[in-house]
Specification:
alpha/beta, homodimer, Aspartate Aminotransferase, domain 2, Aspartate Aminotransferase, domain 1, 433 residues, 2 domains, four-stranded mixed sheet
Chain lengths: 433, 433
């Protein structure tokens, strides 16, 4: 097999996700043979630094030996069984571990199998909770510039026109509040005031507020101050509205702590985890919730199932996915990864200074293991982000952009030398634009 | 670890899918240590025949050595990379194979990672197709008694009150047509007439019709004649409306042919596959579509993405899941499984006759590797299905019911001896009720 052969076969059959396929008449489609550590390697031995962690999922490097061995052992025992009426060690151990690791008060775990489905579980469960309490509420609130996934419910609480506008006639009605537009305390205050005004007026009809804590990732990597989360928790308590934390992208160490909510020392009512949950190996998501939510569904079955939460996905709690997650957490703990990341985070901070002098670079920002900047001074038709991406690719670094926003979100095992190579590439690409 | 220990730990942390947790104060929650062939084994060496294929996913037995070895080899090479801008052999080989195997004309493959998400992809893509053609259509049509998944979009085209009614205020509006209520040609005609009336009146505002071909699985295993599909295809052509075939549960040999649509010799416009796609190993789904659908999205990118299909899930086209799927297909072909199933299907047909004399058994039905019957003569509060389930469990057979409907949907590698044991158990359970 050669790069070209695989690419040609691919283009005959596959409609790629989040892709205008016509772009691939010019834009390279890279054939990957194998991956290890931070590297992806093609069929001709060219290798690429995976500087975006394969869409933000990979945390501990590709083909991590420790995780591989655990999955292989699990394969010989139990690949999959249904989780209704049955249980298995990987699901139970993982659930227990997640209850220990997540903020105090998140005591129960509902399994799903991708991020969007996890969001839908939380939305449905929050809505159903109020129904079980005899209250009719029907609006979800999310932030401007938010993104929570692609299924109809998840998309309805998103605010990015690029993914959403065309589907508006088939989405459900939701409410939007201002998002804090930068990392200042002032922006947090402005956005909280807007949320308070919305809650004052409509809280009796609001089911829940959903946010991505600290970073609106698909929302152009907009980063904001943890004060916003502190204030939001207070408002949710005051107005008796659920707070749903979508930590699908920001969880598992991305922001510098294990969970982004830790920066504000808050406990949301629901927390959704996916992506980094399995260290980038396999599809899995979980919805963590407070005991009182679980309790609201706990009752005698009434044959019409009215108060029961009867949501399911076939591969929910898949033993291989749970094993990947457990192995990832064990590796994180054994290797003291979150603590060691602090040094890496400081090193990235230093490297970011190299971009300050570029007139085409603005809004340089960092939160833990994620940093980003905007390229300015070009027309949108120029698709400058794509040009930057292509140039960096030629130099062996994957920096897939969000429009004109370039971000760096590497696996945690990246070395300083590799980080320097990424920034060398960024600098050269900027110069070349 | 003992059964009891794992169960106690489980109940501290896990909110199980599709489960009223209070039921587990009495209903057994079974701790599974390992699985092989058709058997699940607990920590005390008790074993259970998985007569429902772990929610209809397992086709080739648990911990199948051939599939295990393929996944292990893949683990050492490439566990996961993003599928946007990149590609890999397992995705390409699987896409090519699926285009070969599915009905003629399904030429492109979009990857997702669970059944519900696959349904949402098809709904959004069908809607978006019309928008790209300058038409405003907004209604999806599904059948009475249908079930297509749990996310808001998938649930909106479902019709089972048990899963849906409480969420009505947050679902999107869809249309419903009569479903053929039995396997007779007459029922097919009645239902087609109803669909034709609906199309006559509203076709200009209808995006697509979605059905589960031949068996409404979660819809109490309602089976219907392939004439309905023939007629439905004709109606969809006549009224220029898409036909979406949800083969998540019925695909991959369940109905006696590789795909249920083959019984009617039709090609739907979209076909969604999941569950048996990975032989019961890992989460994965695909949406197969006609070339003209792919073509409607193929154009110059317009920076607002208006005509592009920008849907994605992080683990889309996961190499390990694709490898499981490819290994499963190779096993199916090498072992001539679909052909051999014909004998198994006849044997099940023979065994079903043992149930005919029971006054509490009605509506005995079979379609390929799925058979079902209803238990009658009890009040709904009796939850007779659950009692049946418990009794069969004690005898080592898993027959999780749908209300008062008992169904048998085994892995294809089940032997005649094991089938006899299942029917012995059914007979004894019925006598014991």
């Amino acid at each position: 097999m050669t790069n070209q052969e695989l690419k040609e076969e691919d283009l005959k059959y596959i409609f790629h996700p989040c892709t205008q396929m016509k772009d691939h008449e010019k834009l390279p489609l890279i054939s990957i043979k194998k991956a290890y550590g931070v590297y992806l390697e093609d069929f001709e031995g060219n290798r690429y630094i995976d500087a975006i962690s394969s869409w933000w999922v990979n945390t501990l490097g590709h083909s991590n030996k420790f995780i591989n061995e655990k999955i292989k052992a699990q394969l010989d025992n139990l690949e999959h069984i249904l989780l209704a009426g049955f249980t298995h060690e990987p699901a139970v151990k993982l659930a227990k571990k997640l209850v220990e690791l997540t903020p105090n008060g998140l005591d129960k775990v509902f399994f799903a199998d991708n991020g969007s489905s996890g969001i839908e579980v939380a939305l449905k469960m929050a809505f159903h909770y109020h129904a079980n309490k005899g209250e009719k509420r029907e609006y979800f609130v999310s932030l401007e510039n938010s993104y929570h996934g692609e299924t109809i419910g998840a998309l309805s609480v998103s605010d990015m026109g690029l993914y959403k506008d065309v589907y508006n006639p088939i989405l459900i009605k939701t409410l939007r509040a201002k998002s804090p537009k930068s990392q200042t305390k002032e922006e947090a205050k402005i956005a909280l005031l807007d949320m308070e005004n919305l809650l004052k007026e409509k809280h009796k009809n609001i089911v829940a507020i959903i946010v991505e804590p600290l970073i609106q990732c698909a929302g152009n990597m907009n980063m904001y101050h943890s004060d916003y989360l502190v204030g939001l928790r207070e408002l949710c308590d005051l107005y008796d509205v659920f707070l749903i934390a979508d930590e699908v992208a920001v969880g598992f160490g991305r922001t510098g702590k294990l969970f982004a909510c830790e920066w504000a020392e808050i406990t949301p009512d629901f927390m959704i985890l996916s992506k980094g949950l399995t260290a980038g190996y396999l599809p899995l998501s979980v919805v963590m919730m407070k005991q009182k939510i679980y309790d609201a569904f706990y009752c005698e079955y009434d044959t019409k199932g009215v108060k029961s939460f009867l949501h399911s996905h076939s591969y929910t709690g898949n033993p291989l996915s749970c094993t990947a997650a457990l192995a990832g957490i064990e590796f994180l703990e054994n290797e003291n990864v979150i603590e060691n990341n602090k040094k890496t985070i400081r090193f990235i901070q230093e490297q970011l200074k190299r971009l300050e002098s570029f007139p085409t670079v603005t809004n340089i920002r960092q939160q833990g293991m994620v940093c980003a900047f905007d390229i300015v001074g070009y027309k949108s038709e120029d698709r400058i982000g794509i040009k930057f991406y292509e140039y960096a690719l030629k130099m062996g670094v994957i920096l897939r952009p969000l429009g004109n926003v370039i971000y760096f979100m590497p696996p945690y095992i990246i070395t300083q030398e590799e980080i320097e190579k990424v920034f060398d590439t960024i600098v050269k690409s900027l110069k070349n634009l």
